[in-house]
Design goal:
Blueprint (H helix, E strand, L loop, with lengths): L1 H24 L1 E5 L5 E4 L1 H7 L3 H4 L4 H4 L2 H15 L4 E8 L5 E12 L5 E10 L1 H26 L5 H14 L4 E5 L5 E4 L1 H7 L3 H4 L4 H4 L1 H5 L1 H12 L4 E9 L2 E13 L5 E10 L1 H22 L1
Antiparallel strand pairs: 1-2, 1-5, 3-4, 4-5, 6-7, 6-10, 8-9, 9-10
Protein backbone atom coordinates (compact mmCIF):
# COMPACT_ATOMS: atom_id res chain seq x y z
CA UNK A 1 0.00 0.00 0.00
CA UNK A 2 2.78 2.38 0.95
CA UNK A 3 4.69 1.56 -2.25
CA UNK A 4 1.60 2.33 -4.33
CA UNK A 5 1.12 5.66 -2.57
CA UNK A 6 4.78 6.56 -3.12
CA UNK A 7 4.51 5.69 -6.82
CA UNK A 8 1.40 7.88 -7.12
CA UNK A 9 3.18 10.73 -5.34
CA UNK A 10 6.15 10.36 -7.74
CA UNK A 11 3.90 10.49 -10.80
CA UNK A 12 2.03 13.49 -9.41
CA UNK A 13 5.32 15.28 -8.78
CA UNK A 14 6.47 14.59 -12.36
CA UNK A 15 3.19 15.95 -13.71
CA UNK A 16 3.52 19.06 -11.53
CA UNK A 17 7.06 19.66 -12.85
CA UNK A 18 5.97 19.30 -16.49
CA UNK A 19 2.88 21.46 -15.93
CA UNK A 20 4.99 24.13 -14.22
CA UNK A 21 7.44 24.18 -17.15
CA UNK A 22 4.57 24.57 -19.64
CA UNK A 23 2.89 27.33 -17.63
CA UNK A 24 6.09 29.33 -17.46
CA UNK A 25 7.02 29.25 -21.15
CA UNK A 26 4.20 27.93 -23.34
CA UNK A 27 0.60 28.78 -24.11
CA UNK A 28 -1.65 26.23 -22.46
CA UNK A 29 -5.37 25.66 -21.96
CA UNK A 30 -7.89 22.84 -21.71
CA UNK A 31 -11.20 22.64 -23.53
CA UNK A 32 -14.36 20.57 -23.35
CA UNK A 33 -15.60 18.56 -26.33
CA UNK A 34 -17.72 21.51 -27.52
CA UNK A 35 -14.57 23.64 -27.84
CA UNK A 36 -15.15 25.90 -24.84
CA UNK A 37 -12.11 26.92 -22.78
CA UNK A 38 -12.40 25.52 -19.25
CA UNK A 39 -8.93 26.46 -17.99
CA UNK A 40 -6.12 28.75 -19.24
CA UNK A 41 -2.64 29.69 -18.12
CA UNK A 42 -1.07 33.13 -17.71
CA UNK A 43 0.89 32.88 -21.00
CA UNK A 44 -2.34 32.55 -23.01
CA UNK A 45 -3.88 35.39 -21.04
CA UNK A 46 -0.92 37.68 -21.70
CA UNK A 47 -0.79 36.73 -25.39
CA UNK A 48 -4.49 37.39 -26.07
CA UNK A 49 -4.97 40.29 -23.64
CA UNK A 50 -7.97 38.56 -22.07
CA UNK A 51 -8.20 37.80 -18.36
CA UNK A 52 -8.63 34.29 -16.96
CA UNK A 53 -12.32 35.00 -16.30
CA UNK A 54 -12.84 36.37 -19.82
CA UNK A 55 -11.20 33.33 -21.46
CA UNK A 56 -12.87 30.58 -19.47
CA UNK A 57 -16.26 29.82 -20.98
CA UNK A 58 -15.20 31.39 -24.30
CA UNK A 59 -15.45 29.26 -27.45
CA UNK A 60 -11.95 28.76 -28.89
CA UNK A 61 -13.38 29.12 -32.40
CA UNK A 62 -14.47 32.68 -31.51
CA UNK A 63 -10.78 33.65 -31.14
CA UNK A 64 -9.90 32.25 -34.59
CA UNK A 65 -10.19 34.58 -37.59
CA UNK A 66 -13.29 33.87 -39.65
CA UNK A 67 -11.36 32.82 -42.76
CA UNK A 68 -9.70 29.92 -40.86
CA UNK A 69 -12.75 28.61 -38.95
CA UNK A 70 -13.92 26.12 -41.58
CA UNK A 71 -10.44 24.54 -41.72
CA UNK A 72 -10.25 24.51 -37.90
CA UNK A 73 -13.62 22.76 -37.56
CA UNK A 74 -12.34 19.93 -39.77
CA UNK A 75 -9.27 19.56 -37.55
CA UNK A 76 -11.46 19.69 -34.42
CA UNK A 77 -13.46 16.67 -35.65
CA UNK A 78 -10.17 14.76 -35.97
CA UNK A 79 -9.29 15.64 -32.36
CA UNK A 80 -12.69 14.43 -31.14
CA UNK A 81 -11.99 11.16 -32.99
CA UNK A 82 -8.85 10.67 -30.91
CA UNK A 83 -6.17 12.24 -33.10
CA UNK A 84 -3.54 14.69 -31.87
CA UNK A 85 -3.09 17.49 -34.40
CA UNK A 86 -0.59 20.32 -34.84
CA UNK A 87 -1.44 23.51 -36.71
CA UNK A 88 -0.86 27.26 -36.83
CA UNK A 89 -3.86 29.22 -35.53
CA UNK A 90 -4.52 32.77 -36.70
CA UNK A 91 -6.19 34.44 -33.72
CA UNK A 92 -7.73 37.79 -32.85
CA UNK A 93 -6.83 39.01 -29.37
CA UNK A 94 -8.26 41.77 -27.20
CA UNK A 95 -8.65 45.09 -29.05
CA UNK A 96 -8.48 43.24 -32.39
CA UNK A 97 -4.77 42.34 -32.19
CA UNK A 98 -3.65 39.80 -34.82
CA UNK A 99 -1.89 36.79 -33.27
CA UNK A 100 -0.37 33.55 -34.54
CA UNK A 101 -0.09 30.42 -32.40
CA UNK A 102 1.83 27.25 -33.24
CA UNK A 103 -0.44 24.81 -31.39
CA UNK A 104 -0.92 21.12 -30.68
CA UNK A 105 -4.37 19.84 -29.67
CA UNK A 106 -4.38 16.51 -27.84
CA UNK A 107 -7.49 14.62 -26.62
CA UNK A 108 -7.40 13.18 -23.09
CA UNK A 109 -9.35 10.01 -22.23
CA UNK A 110 -10.25 8.31 -18.97
CA UNK A 111 -9.45 4.59 -18.34
CA UNK A 112 -12.83 3.67 -19.88
CA UNK A 113 -11.90 5.42 -23.13
CA UNK A 114 -14.28 8.35 -22.65
CA UNK A 115 -13.10 11.80 -23.70
CA UNK A 116 -12.42 13.96 -20.63
CA UNK A 117 -11.02 17.14 -22.18
CA UNK A 118 -8.79 18.45 -24.96
CA UNK A 119 -5.38 19.89 -24.10
CA UNK A 120 -3.94 22.75 -26.15
CA UNK A 121 -0.24 23.54 -25.84
CA UNK A 122 1.45 26.06 -28.12
CA UNK A 123 4.02 28.74 -28.78
CA UNK A 124 3.39 32.37 -29.72
CA UNK A 125 4.95 32.86 -33.20
CA UNK A 126 3.27 36.20 -33.92
CA UNK A 127 6.48 38.16 -34.50
CA UNK A 128 8.02 35.48 -36.76
CA UNK A 129 4.80 35.23 -38.78
CA UNK A 130 4.56 39.00 -39.17
CA UNK A 131 8.17 39.06 -40.39
CA UNK A 132 7.32 36.34 -42.93
CA UNK A 133 4.28 38.28 -44.18
CA UNK A 134 6.33 41.48 -44.35
CA UNK A 135 8.96 39.65 -46.39
CA UNK A 136 6.34 38.40 -48.83
CA UNK A 137 5.00 41.93 -49.21
CA UNK A 138 8.49 43.28 -49.80
CA UNK A 139 9.02 40.60 -52.46
CA UNK A 140 5.88 41.83 -54.22
CA UNK A 141 7.19 45.39 -54.01
CA UNK A 142 10.46 44.29 -55.62
CA UNK A 143 8.49 42.61 -58.41
CA UNK A 144 6.34 45.71 -58.98
CA UNK A 145 9.37 47.99 -58.99
CA UNK A 146 11.26 45.86 -61.51
CA UNK A 147 8.25 45.87 -63.87
CA UNK A 148 7.74 49.61 -63.46
CA UNK A 149 11.42 50.34 -64.08
CA UNK A 150 11.44 48.13 -67.17
CA UNK A 151 8.32 49.84 -68.56
CA UNK A 152 9.95 53.24 -68.13
CA UNK A 153 13.03 52.01 -70.04
CA UNK A 154 15.35 52.92 -67.16
CA UNK A 155 17.22 49.69 -67.71
CA UNK A 156 20.62 50.45 -66.23
CA UNK A 157 21.35 52.97 -63.48
CA UNK A 158 17.86 53.49 -62.09
CA UNK A 159 17.12 49.75 -61.87
CA UNK A 160 20.38 49.16 -60.04
CA UNK A 161 19.69 52.02 -57.62
CA UNK A 162 16.13 50.83 -56.87
CA UNK A 163 17.25 47.26 -56.38
CA UNK A 164 20.07 48.22 -54.04
CA UNK A 165 17.68 50.31 -51.93
CA UNK A 166 15.16 47.48 -51.57
CA UNK A 167 17.82 44.83 -51.00
CA UNK A 168 19.44 46.97 -48.33
CA UNK A 169 16.10 47.14 -46.51
CA UNK A 170 15.89 43.33 -46.54
CA UNK A 171 19.55 42.75 -45.72
CA UNK A 172 19.18 42.73 -41.94
CA UNK A 173 16.48 40.07 -41.73
CA UNK A 174 16.47 38.06 -44.97
CA UNK A 175 18.73 36.03 -47.21
CA UNK A 176 18.44 37.53 -50.70
CA UNK A 177 19.78 36.26 -54.02
CA UNK A 178 19.17 37.14 -57.68
CA UNK A 179 19.27 34.42 -60.33
CA UNK A 180 19.27 34.70 -64.13
CA UNK A 181 16.92 32.54 -66.28
CA UNK A 182 19.82 30.19 -67.08
CA UNK A 183 20.54 29.66 -63.36
CA UNK A 184 23.51 32.04 -63.01
CA UNK A 185 23.53 33.57 -59.50
CA UNK A 186 24.48 37.22 -59.94
CA UNK A 187 23.97 38.44 -56.37
CA UNK A 188 23.73 37.24 -52.78
CA UNK A 189 23.52 39.54 -49.76
CA UNK A 190 25.53 39.53 -46.54
CA UNK A 191 22.82 37.63 -44.62
CA UNK A 192 23.53 34.60 -46.84
CA UNK A 193 27.15 34.68 -45.74
CA UNK A 194 26.19 35.16 -42.07
CA UNK A 195 23.63 32.31 -41.95
CA UNK A 196 24.97 29.74 -44.42
CA UNK A 197 28.70 30.36 -44.09
CA UNK A 198 29.59 30.41 -47.80
CA UNK A 199 31.51 33.45 -49.03
CA UNK A 200 30.14 35.64 -51.81
CA UNK A 201 32.79 34.48 -54.28
CA UNK A 202 31.75 30.85 -53.66
CA UNK A 203 28.17 31.56 -54.78
CA UNK A 204 28.08 34.61 -57.08
CA UNK A 205 28.79 33.90 -60.77
CA UNK A 206 28.08 30.20 -60.21
CA UNK A 207 25.09 28.32 -61.60
CA UNK A 208 22.40 27.23 -59.14
CA UNK A 209 22.19 23.80 -60.77
CA UNK A 210 25.92 23.24 -60.11
CA UNK A 211 25.82 23.96 -56.36
CA UNK A 212 22.23 23.22 -55.30
CA UNK A 213 21.80 20.11 -53.11
CA UNK A 214 18.49 19.11 -54.74
CA UNK A 215 19.91 19.58 -58.25
CA UNK A 216 22.78 17.22 -57.48
CA UNK A 217 20.92 14.62 -55.40
CA UNK A 218 17.32 14.81 -56.65
CA UNK A 219 17.59 15.91 -60.29
CA UNK A 220 13.98 15.10 -61.24
CA UNK A 221 12.64 17.11 -58.30
CA UNK A 222 14.92 20.03 -59.24
CA UNK A 223 13.79 19.82 -62.89
CA UNK A 224 10.13 20.16 -61.85
CA UNK A 225 11.07 23.08 -59.57
CA UNK A 226 13.03 24.83 -62.34
CA UNK A 227 10.34 24.33 -65.00
CA UNK A 228 7.72 25.79 -62.65
CA UNK A 229 9.80 28.94 -62.19
CA UNK A 230 10.11 29.35 -65.96
CA UNK A 231 6.32 29.13 -66.18
CA UNK A 232 6.05 32.00 -63.68
CA UNK A 233 4.97 29.83 -60.73
CA UNK A 234 6.40 30.87 -57.34
CA UNK A 235 8.22 28.13 -55.44
CA UNK A 236 8.89 27.61 -51.72
CA UNK A 237 11.50 25.26 -50.29
CA UNK A 238 12.60 24.43 -46.74
CA UNK A 239 15.95 22.86 -45.93
CA UNK A 240 18.47 22.33 -43.16
CA UNK A 241 22.26 22.23 -43.24
CA UNK A 242 25.17 22.02 -40.85
CA UNK A 243 27.04 25.30 -40.35
CA UNK A 244 30.08 25.09 -38.07
CA UNK A 245 28.59 22.18 -36.13
CA UNK A 246 25.14 23.78 -35.78
CA UNK A 247 21.99 22.80 -37.68
CA UNK A 248 20.45 25.78 -39.47
CA UNK A 249 16.94 25.78 -40.97
CA UNK A 250 16.02 28.06 -43.87
CA UNK A 251 12.79 28.60 -45.81
CA UNK A 252 13.23 29.96 -49.36
CA UNK A 253 10.69 31.87 -51.47
CA UNK A 254 11.57 31.96 -55.20
CA UNK A 255 9.67 34.66 -57.11
CA UNK A 256 9.94 34.57 -60.93
CA UNK A 257 9.86 37.98 -62.66
CA UNK A 258 8.40 37.78 -66.15
CA UNK A 259 8.82 40.27 -69.03
CA UNK A 260 6.05 41.62 -71.27
CA UNK A 261 6.33 38.58 -73.53
CA UNK A 262 5.77 36.18 -70.65
CA UNK A 263 9.37 34.99 -70.57
CA UNK A 264 11.38 34.63 -67.39
CA UNK A 265 13.46 37.77 -66.76
CA UNK A 266 14.88 37.28 -63.24
CA UNK A 267 14.36 35.07 -60.18
CA UNK A 268 14.36 36.73 -56.76
CA UNK A 269 15.00 34.34 -53.87
CA UNK A 270 14.12 35.76 -50.44
CA UNK A 271 14.74 33.36 -47.55
CA UNK A 272 14.33 33.39 -43.76
CA UNK A 273 16.46 31.79 -41.07
CA UNK A 274 13.83 29.77 -39.13
CA UNK A 275 16.29 27.90 -36.91
CA UNK A 276 14.92 29.32 -33.65
CA UNK A 277 11.34 28.50 -34.63
CA UNK A 278 12.38 24.92 -35.42
CA UNK A 279 14.10 24.59 -32.04
CA UNK A 280 10.97 25.85 -30.27
CA UNK A 281 8.82 23.48 -32.31
CA UNK A 282 11.08 20.54 -31.38
CA UNK A 283 10.91 21.53 -27.70
CA UNK A 284 7.13 21.80 -27.93
CA UNK A 285 6.89 18.33 -29.49
CA UNK A 286 9.17 16.93 -26.77
CA UNK A 287 6.95 18.32 -24.02
CA UNK A 288 3.81 17.06 -25.78
CA UNK A 289 5.35 13.60 -25.98
CA UNK A 290 6.11 13.73 -22.24
CA UNK A 291 2.50 14.69 -21.54
CA UNK A 292 1.22 11.82 -23.68
CA UNK A 293 3.42 9.38 -21.78
CA UNK A 294 2.16 10.74 -18.45
CA UNK A 295 -1.47 10.49 -19.59
CA UNK A 296 -0.89 6.83 -20.56
CA UNK A 297 0.38 6.15 -17.03
Amino acid sequence: MQATQEEMQRKNLELEIITSAINQSLVSCSLNDDGYIIDSNIVLQEMTGFSKIELEGKLLESLIVESQREEFNKLWKSVLNGQSISTTLHLTGNNGRELYLLATLTPGFDPMGLLIKIFLVGHDITEAKKLELMTQQQAKEIEKNIKRIKEEQEISSQRQHEMETLLKALDQNCLVSIIEPDGLITYINNKNVEVLGDQKEDIENHYLQDIDYTAKNKPKEFERFWKSLHKGIKQTREFSLNVKGETRWVIENFTPIMDESGNLYKIINIALDITQNKKKEEELNRIIEQLKQQLKK
